[in-house]
User: Which sequence fits this backbone?
């Protein structure tokens, strides 16, 4: 999808569909120049109330050059924010493309014409246009997507043009991550994920290195290799590097993403209900690769290294058993009490390796626990951190990105649950606070580096279609990670 800014009187805009925001109980304030003739009657009919994402479509509106006029509800004008605009733009795109519109102009009135609104609307449109339908062979040629999305603003400027470009880059990177997640596990083995990372890196001018099983054995990544043991698919440790032309400060950001291409649970096998969804257990890995794609284009002043341990977690004759003890790259030993708690095992070795590669600050992203879904549902990312300053920077990045995130506790009292009789650590705690004990486990491997752990098990997959997004992978965390690097971190 192409995006662009234009500045023209709305009546004169020739397009398949012109979209205007219309707010609750305030027809007179909605889309000012069009209000009297076209918008006010919608309210008068009683059919349209302007609630968030309400829609009303008018064909061949007399006096307008556009073929269709879509009023989209914005809810209460007073509380309207870029986050809601992102949804409104996405919903408008999804609604209109189902009608066959290929060119859309979305009118941003004066109050909503600053950079943050332009970014949000651009992102919303591109995210809303996404479909995970490449394996549907029927009606391939009828598949609908929007070719051109233009934002009509009061006045175009280089600031707004930059904002549009930033929104486009971030949303395209997020859709790249969604594409990786949407692939079924037979089409996204660890080596296939590594190949996709390599292709992306090459296209974007990033450095990419893949460590194979032999190399990981030499290095001593026993925890990662233990998880990989049950699968016929060899593991890969994907490393993608972004280096700025001139770095400001000594921060080196490490982004580590869980890349379990399929999680059966291993010998501690999962119930078969919903197991199909465990192809999304590489969403953290996809998110860091998406973020790298955005950074290659946006060029922040900090060096960033992404690490994705890519592994398939399978039962089988060679699989690790409950009770096995593995030696991690850090030298610490772990008793694998439950083979389904595999994410923390592969992340432990990847986090240690990130430190060895010189990363001073670490963020890991993982569909790590069912417990975070119990705690926060499908709305908020759960965030755990050992460093308040760094956590606040990440939260500010999430706020700018419009991604919801909740601060969860880390506390040494939880460590009581992480005692092993036979090794340094067990890989699971007791029944309680499962998302926290998982985070406490990871904390053992970041040493002194400021670190944030993002548990995205509840937010990486959308269970039902929304007006602004289809069911399936969400690409959550891509925008937050990219924005974190863009702050410069110094
Ligand atoms: N991949 C799962 C976590 C998960 C659950 C992601 C639901 C998405 C949706 C993870 O590897 C796992 O199985 N965790 C176990 C840990 C337990 C054995 C301590 C869990 O959460 O049940
Ligand atoms: Zn698991
Ligand atoms: Zn898992």
Assistant:
């Amino acid at each position: 999808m192409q995006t662009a800014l234009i500045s023209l009187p709305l009546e004169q805009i020739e397009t398949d569909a012109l979209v205007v925001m219309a707010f609750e109980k305030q027809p007179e304030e909605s889309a000012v120049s069009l209000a009297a003739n076209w918008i006010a009657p919608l309210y008068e009919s009683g059919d349209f109330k302007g609630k968030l994402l309400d829609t009303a479509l008018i064909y061949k509106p007399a006096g307008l050059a556009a073929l269709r006029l879509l009023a989209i509800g914005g809810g209460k004008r007073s509380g309207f924010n870029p986050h809601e605009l992102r949804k409104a733009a996405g919903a408008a795109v999804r609604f209109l493309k189902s009608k066959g519109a290929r060119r859309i102009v979305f009118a941003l009135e004066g109050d909503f014409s600053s950079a943050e609104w332009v970014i949000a609307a651009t992102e919303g449109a591109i995210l809303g246009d996404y479909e995970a339908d490449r394996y549907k062979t029927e009606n391939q040629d009828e598949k609908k997507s929007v070719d051109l999305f233009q934002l009509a603003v009061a006045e175009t400027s280089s600031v707004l043009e930059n904002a549009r470009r930033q929104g486009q880059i971030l949303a395209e990177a997020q859709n790249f991550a969604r594409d990786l997640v949407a692939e079924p596990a037979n089409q996204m083995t660890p080596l296939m994920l590594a190949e996709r990372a390599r292709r992306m890196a090459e296209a974007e001018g990033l450095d990419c290195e893949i460590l194979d099983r032999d190399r990981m054995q030499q290095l001593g990544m026993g925890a990662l290799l233990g998880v990989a043991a049950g699968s016929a698919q060899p593991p890969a440790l994907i490393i993608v590097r972004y280096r700025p032309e001139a770095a400001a400060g000594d921060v080196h950001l490490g982004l580590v993403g869980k890349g379990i291409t399929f999680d059966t649970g291993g010998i501690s096998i999962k119930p078969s209900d919903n197991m199909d969804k465990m192809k999304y257990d590489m969403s953290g890995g996809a998110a860091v690769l998406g973020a790298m794609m955005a950074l290659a284009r946006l060029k922040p002043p900090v060096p960033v290294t992404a690490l994705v341990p890519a592994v398939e977690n399978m039962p089988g004759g060679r699989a690790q058993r409950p009770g096995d003890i593995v030696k991690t790259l850090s030298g610490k030993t772990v008793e694998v009490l439950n083979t389904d708690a595999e994410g923390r095992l592969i992340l432990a070795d990847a986090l240690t390796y990130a430190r060895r590669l010189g990363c001073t600050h670490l963020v890991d992203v993982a569909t790590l626990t069912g417990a975070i879904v119990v705690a926060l549902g499908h709305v908020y990312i759960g965030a755990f951190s050992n460093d308040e300053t760094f956590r606040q920077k990440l939260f500010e990045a999430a706020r700018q990105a419009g991604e919801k995130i909740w601060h969860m506790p880390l506390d040494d009292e939880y460590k009581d649950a992480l005692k092993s009789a036979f090794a340094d650590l067990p890989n699971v705690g007791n029944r309680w606070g499962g998302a926290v004990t998982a985070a406490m486990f990871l904390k053992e491997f970041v040493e002194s580096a400021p670190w944030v752990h993002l548990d995205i098990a509840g937010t990486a997959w959308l269970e039902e279609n929304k007006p602004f997004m289809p069911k399936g992978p969400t690409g959550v965390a891509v925008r937050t990670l990219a924005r974190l690097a863009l702050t410069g971190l110094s």
